Amino acid sequence: MISAATLGSAAQGTGDSAEPSAGAAAPAAAAPGQKKLETVRIGYLRTYERTLALSVLDIPPEDIGLAGANVAIKDNDTTGSFMGQKFLLDVVTLKPGEDVGPAVEKMLADGDHYIVTDLSAADTLKAADLAKAKNAIILNAGAEDDRLRNDDCRYNMFHTAPSRSMLTDGLAQYLMWKQWRNWALVEGEHENDKLFAEALKRSATKFGGKIVAEKVFEDAGGARATDSGQAQVQRQIPVFLQDLPDHDVLLVADESEVFGTYIPWRNWIPRPVAGTAGLVPGSWHPASEQWGGAQIQNRFEDASGRRMESKDMQAWTAVRIIGEAASRTQSTDPEKIDAFIRGDDFTVAAFKGQRLTFRDWDWQLRQPVLLGTEDSVVTSSPQEGFLHQVSELDTLGYDRPESTCKFDN
Predict the structure, then answer these.
(1) What is the pLDDT of residue 29?
(2) Are residues 276 and 200 in contact, defined by beta-carbon separation less than 8 angstroms?
(3) Which end of the chain has fewer CB atoms at under 10 Å, N or C?
């Protein structure tokens, strides 16, 4: 374990304080003449290790995700102060591969009824199963695996991270809107690369795209940046791609950061690139300023010294969900907050043009998908013309009839 810290600001207000219930921390001490503040504890459990990337600009910052959660704590305190509520973030950072069990158990013992996670799919699932024993809730802000929304779903596991299928559906809708129907696909050989490629294939079938050819890029290892690397890449990538048939778009599935960054401007047939390189789908974009986005970007940049990434927004949204529910119920009682989050009246605003809700069949947060290049947002999906009888957001990812999730309450 790298660190365990307790963060959060105590804003004081004039709201009445209720008696603390099971799972809620004791009221914070108040100055004479002021009413006590009820504390809501939120755990934040993540793995982080500085990793190599093909571009130094793609190395995740050390506070990725966590910076968004910290801004959300301040936002929660601002609203909560009027109702006698304060919020505390209990942070634990693990190294990849480290057992999450002891950290989850300590958080639960300390009274963290809500735990925001940025973990692998397997570790997220383990955290959810441990939390279930204490009737605690996991808010998955990191794992995009579709299995966590299908066969491996859990009644106490909510998702603010979009699923891979939501991301690839958002991309596929735009490509179809542009009438770029023929796609070539290059995928890596690692597990996450294959999962992203499978999601792209599913999206092609769903929306009428045609994958005309597939290639696998083998990871030969070796140094990612050498003096002769640029010249080698300039020669090797076009040769690798020269046998592809004609296509409208070249799709890249390289979550492992082995080759994808090298593809744009080096392909044999001059075509746009999309997927994990080129035009990339995400829950957020550092350049997004629509729908009040400039406001959150400015506050985030003031707090962290950088622009907001997708994982920052996913963590911010997870923490704000707890604050919104506590505010709407005017309570720090976990049972009341939990019931409200699962109820029909719950919504949360996240600077995406509409209030967001949870799908009640898998607890995935409905949300638009932003498609962007390195420095700009190109468009937002769902695209015009992709209709749905309930919500156009349900055209992204697994809809109710497609879902294999069966909650075991």
Answers:
(1) 46
(2) no
(3) C
Q: Model confidence over 122-156: pLDDT tens digits? A: 999 999 999 999 999 999 999 999 999 999 999 99
Kindly provide the b/e burial profile for residues 307-316, where b requires at least 16 CB atoms within 10 angstroms of the residue's own CB.
ebbbbbbbbb
Domain ranges in the chain with CATH number 3.40.50.2300: 3-162+285-367, 165-280
User: Coil, helix or strand for 137?
Assistant: strand
**Cα 375–174–211 angle (5° rounding)?**
110
Per-residue pLDDT reduced to its tens digit, 62-116: 999 999 999 999 999 999 999 999 999 999 999 999 999 999 999 999 999 999 9
Strands 369-372 and 280-282: antiparallel
CATH topology of domain 3-162+285-367: Rossmann fold (3.40.50)
Per-residue tokens: 65: 């995700």
Residue-level pLDDT at 34: 56
Closest by Cα among 175, 85, 191 to 143: 191
What is the CATH code for 165-280? 3.40.50.2300
CA–CA separation, 57 and 393 (whole Å)? 31
Listed as ranges, residues in the chain with pLDDT below 50 are 3-33, 227
Q: What angle do CA 374, 190, 211 make, to 5 degrees?
A: 70
Pairwise CA distance, residues 50 & 99, whole Å:
18
Q: What is the DSSP string of 23-47?
A: TSPPPBP--TTSPPBEEEEEEEEEE
Burial 275-292 (b: 16+ CB within 10 A, else e): bbbbbbbbbbbbbbeebe
